[in-house]
Amino acid sequence: MEKRLRSSLKTSAEEFLSSAVKLTLKSSKPSLKTIVNSVKPSSDLSSSLPLALLHSILHHTESFQNPPPPHSPSNSPPPKRQRGNGPPPGSDSDSDQQQQILTSLQVLSHVLHLCILSPKKAFSANDLLPAAQALHNNLWLFESDPALCLEIAGVCESWWKGDLIERETLIIQLLPFLLSRSLTLKKKVDVHRVYMLREAFALFDFEDEESIEDLRMLLMRCVVSPLYLKTEDGQRFLSFAFRLSRQLMKSGLAVVKAQIPLGRKSVLDGFGGILFRAWREVEDDLRGEIEDGFMQGIVDSAIHAGSSALATSLRKVLGGFISQRTTHGVEKLLFNLAEPMIFRSLQVANSNVRLNALHLLLDLFPMEDPDATKEEKDKLLDKQFYLLEKLMSDECPDVRSVAVEGLCRVFYLFWEVIPSPTITKTITKIFNDMSHESCSEVRLSTVNGITYLLANPQSHGILKVLLPRLGHLMLDNVTSVRVAMVDLLLFLRDVRTFQFNTVVSLDVLLSVLASDQTHVAKGIARLLMPSYFPSRKRTEEACTRCRTLINRDPLAGATLQSARQLVGFFLDSILSGDDKLEENQIEGLLLAAYSLCKDLVADSGCMASLKELLPGEKLKSLLAFAPTAQAQSAVFDILAMVSPVTVSDVLEDCMNLVVNCGGLPGDEGRQVEMRSVHKLLLSSNAFSDLIGTFINILQKTAYRCQINFGDEVERKNVYSASRKKSKSSSAKWKHVSEKNAISFEEDYSVAVGIAWQIKDLLSNEDARKAILESSDIEELCVALKVVSQTSILQSSCCEYMDVYPVLAYTSLALHIALRNLDTDAQMNIAEDILDQTMGHILGCTEELFQAGDNGTSDTIALKAHPSKKPKRKNSKDASEGLRSKEGGVLNKVKMLTAILKFIVESTEMGLASHFQARVLKFTSAYLKYAISSFDHHSTGKLQFEDADLKDFILCAKSSTSYAGKLINLVMRKASRPLFEAFDLANDMLDLFTMVEISVGSAYASKLVTALSPWIPDLVLALGPCFINNNNNLEEEEEEDSYTSTFNHIKLRFPTWLVTCAKLELHEMDDTSETHLQLPALKRLRNTIVSLVKGNSKVVDGIGYVLLMCSAVCIEKKDYSTVLGLLRFLCVKLLSREAEEEDREWKELDTMLVSLPRIYPIIEREISEERDEEEVKKLEAARELLLPVWTYHVYETGRFRMMEEEE
């Protein structure tokens, strides 16, 4: 096909078109595109083809309008008339001929479209215009062929978008056609096409009502079209249409007002968005039509509406403005509209008006005049709270109900800014008075409002005290109130700081469960299910069912007697040695016996009989029959509860379990068993022996760390500064100097198990108290310190190095510090403890990073003793377990994540304030290491398995959250902005970008949840530090500041900005066949942009950074990145919707100071650059800054004045 077309093209343009129209458009599209795009400007076809197109289009159009009469020979008889109502003879052939003409016109229209879009610009617009006009003028004629009309519309659209000559002649038929098509087919793509041609509508004279009536009616149909109201492009187009003329705006507002009572939620939301956009963008003389002629009426109607449905619909439309109240001028508008009538309406006699005014006040809260003084604002806020509190006592139940729930919503949203006395007074009234209201709807609103308020964690302190006052509502005589109470309790169950049984007692819940309606009982069953049927203890089901029966049986004594007999039966069955019992059955019986014993010991009357039933010897013999770790754990728990005096008989077994703890962190079953051993030892006063065992094992491992790796630490008597000198003689270093019977790796594995036990014990209040009061705690800390140091330094070298020694060491230091916070003297001790630990940990990490930078692959010798050569009694100990590169990286990342967690916790306690710069540098170094590792994974230098990659992503997610919190804490407490915080913020964004580039958007989205809460802090770290460091400087200081900032950014250039620049360039180039697919980064970028808009100080700081980065890229001759960064600044960040503001850069002083340095550099590079493509990039970059530059050169003289001074 293509060969035939090319052959005909060589003959003449007419021959080419004649061959082309014989084909269908679908089959010939690829060939036509290839042939037309290959035509060069110098070819004869560039002039002959447009002329041939015009003649062919005119010929086919005339043939379609005037089909020839059917031809028949003069001597032939007339055809016989057929019976019925069938078509006359020859009608089928006429129809086929007409269809063939339309098909030919489709091909001709497509060829014309290809000529317009020719990449080589081979065809003159003057030559193509007559053909385009011929098609456009007959668009209405071909309405029977949608495909042809669409091709013609494409021709006209391309002509308009290309800004070709006389483009206004090709829109008269086009715009009504596109409007009609979008309303008929109801497709989003057609709405988008209308929106892209919106500027063409301004060419019509909408004041001439007769000539424009049809187009105006189409526009009014668009106003009520759900498709236009629900799509972004549709809303933007309608808001633009409202600005075309005053009469059109009046008609549109009238249509909107008429549709409000009938509109659905999405339609009403669309009306609100359209009106807001139109108000924001319209000129001042037309803005009054919206404010005075429409909005004032909406507010008045929302207050005086006769039905609640109509009032709700009106407030939905107002919501388009309320949701945008941060936009300049909106708050003032809402205040001026509502204030004159809303306070008066809250106190009128009509309860319906009071209810409507209350709803509106809650939507507008806090209503304030932005131009008022602080005193006036506070007075107005007090007035609003006074009226809301007063309405809780309104005579109308509906008003009281809305007031209660609305106040809870206000407290949820604005808890931080409302005075505490106001909150306490109002919430106390809700609990004391409103929960006892006679109206069930008010009681229901009370419960629903408190449930809503609980979602704000800051309310938990006061609610924990007041919530028990709602307990009586669980027995309310209205079902809906009881259901709401169940929902409240279900919410409380998932909040760690609350216990639902303190709000409603367990007896009441079980009583309601037994007697209430089904849906109430089902809710209580859901509430109690996790307590009575734990998902992780499937073998306990029989036991928990028994326990439920015990709690619900009114004959408690008889039930408890049965429980004792059941325990005896279970244990006798095990001790009988029945071969039929399998391991899982024995485990289930022991777990059931333990659960029943736990219930029985709560009753003091049963304790004596239980001890008689279970003597110590009987319990001790059970250990021989316990087949699993969980079963042994149950035996130890029963021993601790029933017969703790027999612990001395099983102490050896307990200590064996404690010592043989290699691999414990990864074995959940053994962990449960170990906790039971700890509980038993704690209850029997044998805990000091446990601590001594810990110290002995850790000191032995610490000694071997010193021998194998040369790791020694300085011992300072800080940990025991607040207690008496140790009398223990067991914790001496000399006892570990005997010959080792096992390898260092096995020794270290046991030490890891000990570290896990220490960290787990510190989470238990009684065990933590016993550890902190131990006289040997200093020896324990020093041993952990040595093992932790080795774990950190060898983390990337040895397979068996684990994070738990570091976790135990840092956790112990934190708890020791927390214990010493009561007095000023103890506060100093706490700070010394944290200082020593923090300094040691950071020193280790600095040495670890230095070794990585130097490429050290062997084990690391201690930096503090460079001259000391460690002894190696068993040289293979240190080299055993050398791990793969991937394993070493993952181990190192886990270690650094644990250290970062400790740093954040210490900073939050306020005990590491003078380490701010150092911890920020550590965090940056860690994130850079993670970035490098992900980069190596993407390039194949590292090849992580799927499981390891998921662990790496999990560490990156946790580290991102910790780093964000660290920035928040540091910036909140720092007296001056820190450039280290700026670097860390960029490193976090660099890590996010690298994760998406290297492993994909799915993994990057997991980091979004960790990054999202800290985005405002990142934004503040990125910009204002430069503002605060550059404002109010003398000229010489300003030059030094500019140079230091330039050099800092040049040294630590943010790579995420390079990627953002690439995204901008891809968005600019619509013809690019490859698009940068980074959806997560795009969403993050858009979030940052939306967050900073409206805050000129933050925009000024970030904009200054972008200009500095552009200057660095100019120096590097990276003009693509320069163009992308400046487009991101001018188009995204500054959003050129307000043209005048864009030219002035109001309140962007820091950016304006830097502009005279950067703009001349761009001009110079344009004049010196020889590469044409690079010059185009520089010219495009200059065009972005040109409006601001010319404005301040010719309008304000700011830059010229600066040049003269220089």
Question: Can you tag this structure with a few keywords?
Answer:
Condensin-2 complex subunit G2, ARM-like, 1206 residues, 57 helices, ARM-type_fold, mainly alpha, Condensin2_G2
Give helix % range: over 70%
Number of β-strand runs: 0
Q: From the helix content, strand content and strand pairing, which structural class follows?
A: mainly alpha
Q: Quote the beta fraction.
A: under 5%
Shape: globular
Radius of gyration: 40 Å
Largest sheet: none
Written account of the structure:
By secondary structure, the chain is an all-alpha fold. The protein is built from 57 helices and no strands. Helix 4 runs parallel beside helix 6. The protein is globular, with a radius of gyration of 40 Å. The protein starts with a helix and ends with a helix. The model is unreliable at 72-76, 78-87, 542-547, 549-562, 716-740, 856-882, 1137-1141 and 1201-1206 (pLDDT under 50).
What would you say about this model in short?
This protein is mainly alpha-helical and 1206 residues long.
What's the SSE blueprint?
Blueprint: H1 2-11, H2 13-20, H3 25-37, H4 45-65, H5 91-116, H6 125-137, H7 146-161, H8 174-185, H9 188-196, H10 209-223, H11 226-230, H12 232-241, H13 246-259, H14 265-281, H15 284-304, H16 308-322, H17 330-345, H18 351-364, H19 374-391, H20 397-414, H21 420-432, H22 440-453, H23 460-466, H24 479-493, H25 506-515, H26 518-532, H27 541-552, H28 556-575, H29 583-600, H30 604-613, H31 616-622, H32 629-642, H33 647-659, H34 668-683, H35 687-709, H36 744-762, H37 765-772, H38 777-793, H39 804-819, H40 824-853, H41 875-879, H42 885-909, H43 916-939, H44 946-973, H45 979-999, H46 1001-1011, H47 1015-1022, H48 1024-1030, H49 1035-1051, H50 1055-1068, H51 1079-1092, H52 1096-1115, H53 1119-1133, H54 1139-1144, H55 1149-1168, H56 1172-1195, H57 1198-1205
